[in-house]
Amino acid sequence: MSLSSRTRTAPPAHAASSRPGHDIGLVLLRGTVGLTMATHGTQKLFGWFDGSGIDGTADHFAADGYAAAETMAVVAGLTETLCGLGLAIGLLHPLAAAGIIGIMLNAIATKWGNGFFNPSGIEYDLVLLAAAAGLALTGPGRFAADRLLPALRAHRTAHGAGAIALGALTAAIVLVALRD
Length: 180
Hints:
Radius of gyration: 19 Å
Number of domains: 1
Number of helices: 6
Mean pLDDT: 88
Largest sheet: none
Low-confidence stretches: 10-17
Structural class: mainly alpha
Strand content: under 5%
Number of strands: 0
């Protein structure tokens, strides 16, 4: 059989997500980013893992110029905790990614003048932002709680793009409306 007589077909659209390595890689990335964010959120909310709790976090937000610093501390802590857990288990994946994107854009905006490298730069926040945006666009994979929800069973790029837009819009609103 010659090359010209063979027909080449493109792999089905779901082929990438049907490879076990792909799905295991997404679980690893979702779990790492999600649990990192959730742990960071519990530092804000409860002072766990050597965190500063609500009062210390509110002081930090006040120093950054937020008018409602205590409210912002609670909102940030809840967003990081709940969206982090959602991302880790793949539950409401686009919404979880949107929350993390919004938090990371806000963190980057408040640290922008500090340069790139940590401890006060944006490098760590940028990596988490890129990971959350990448996960939003890629989808949670087969090993995710969203597979149990009919509306989210099949990931659509539009869900990811919407998550990125929602995260960016939320960050913009927070930066404009809640700062002094």
